[in-house]
Amino acid sequence: MTAYLIRSVSIVGGEPTDLLIRDGVVAETGRGLAADDATVVDASGLVALPGLVDLHTHLREPGREDAETVESGSRAAALGGYTAVCAMANTSPVADTAGVVEQVWRLGREAGLVDVQPIGAVTVGLAGERLAELGAMADSAAGVRIFSDDGHCVSDPRLMRRALEYVKAFDGVIAQHAEEPRLTEGAQMHEGEVSTRLGLTGWPAVAEEAIIARDVLLAEHVGSRLHVCHVSTAGSVEVLRQAKARGVRVTAEVTPHHLLLTDERAASYDPVFKVNPPLRTAADIAALREALAEGVIDIIATDHAPHAVEDKECEWAYARPGMLGLETALSIALDVFGPRWDLIAERMSRTPARIAGLAGHGLDPAPGVPANLTLVDPAARRVIEPAELASRSRNTPYARMTLPGRIVATFLRGEPTVLDGKAVK
Questions:
Q1: Where are the domains positioned within the chain?
Q2: Is the peptide bond before 339 cis (omega within 30 degrees of 0)?
Q3: From CA 17, how far away is CA 33, in angstroms rounded?
Q4: Distance CA 10, CA 6 (A)
């Protein structure tokens, strides 16, 4: 295993120092370090962050390898500064058995670019009718601890209660896609002034807020862990704020696109802006940013959702919802919050690693810590070119936008997956 001496790097925004990586861990930090056997990396002007962790990634394999594979998604993640991603269960076949989650887990290990932690389905086939093999998936080699029917809401309250009770035995987490389906039938975008003007069926904010309100009460009653996926409304923030004040074991995520893009984008009828939940209003964005900064919303999660060309480049009504996110998430965080490095490390690495129980991830670079880290050039600005992305899909909403920051290097247990901004493998 090659040793690396990273010179003059700022660890989470601190004063420049040297960082020696040896045998997969951070061996030493300090000024003026020397190691004759180490490959030297000049990191002047760069910031070292704990490797980013994404709690919400769609890798599409098995079943939709035309849109993404575990390997291509892992490469996109590494280029985005990630060292671990949690792969959602809406594959084909659905990841609702020990066999499927182990397949995804092994594909991640074979790719070797990031740690891929599968998320298991809550219900068989995501159908919302009966619980999947939660215990078997938890006991599998993949060691599943998060379960979600993402893309579908577990709308039956009795089933949701049973799921929360079941995973409590091994301190698991139910990650809910909060959407009351009877309120969103035929919905195409956020319900509001823009949807009325465009003549598109609206998706009301209350469809999300009602499920979150119900589920925090269920989690409080059971005493189990609930995670709310892709929060998108100001009302949802208030429900979460009240629940946390009562001590409910609830965490929540927001996506980069819900921190930046409004429902006005739908006026172009460009399906790249069609997403689930939909883009909301400027007032919602302001509430989400404030909630993330204060910790009411715990993390940024990408909801990286690659789609094949035929599923996205079509009429708005027929387009699949979803956007790419892994390779641009840190840039969006910098665009929204600026170089608040401790906040970014907390929301994009430390806390998601803690929620997912990913040992060795989410730890600031320090002696004895596994060398899972990323080096960022905060002064760089880059134009997002879809053809240059590592994902197999091209449905990025940031095409030709100029965004701040550039991932220069990513290390997974001391081995580089990205150097000089390029994937090593």
A1: 3-48+367-423, 51-356
A2: no
A3: 9
A4: 10
- 10 Å Cβ neighbour count for 283? 12
Catalytic residue, chosen from 115, 215, 284, 303, is 303
Tokens representing 368 are 């004895």
Q: Tokens 């100029």 identify what position? A: 402
Q: Distance between CA atoms of 143 and 101, rounded to whole angstroms? A: 9
Enter the CATH code of domain 3-48+367-423: 2.30.40.10
91 φ, ψ (degrees, to nearest 5): -100, -175
**Do 3-48+367-423 and 51-356 fold alike per CATH?**
no
**51-356 CATH pick, 3.30.420.200, 3.20.20.140, 3.40.50.970, 3.20.20.190:** 3.20.20.140
Whole-number Å distance between alpha carbons of 47 and 339: 10
Q: Cα 252 from chain centroid?
A: 11
pLDDT tens for each residue of the chain, 425 residues long: 899 999 999 999 999 999 999 999 999 999 999 999 999 999 999 999 999 999 999 999 999 999 999 999 999 999 999 999 999 999 999 999 999 999 999 999 999 999 999 999 999 999 999 999 999 999 999 999 999 999 999 999 999 999 999 999 999 999 999 999 999 999 999 999 999 999 999 999 999 999 999 999 999 999 999 999 999 999 999 999 999 999 999 999 999 999 999 999 999 999 999 999 999 999 999 999 999 999 999 999 999 999 999 999 999 999 999 999 999 999 999 999 999 999 999 999 999 999 999 999 999 999 999 999 999 999 999 999 999 999 999 999 999 999 999 999 999 999 999 999 999 98
270 is catalytic: no
Q: Hey, what are 33's tokens?
A: 């370090």
Cα–Cα nearest to 409, from 21, 58, 107: 21
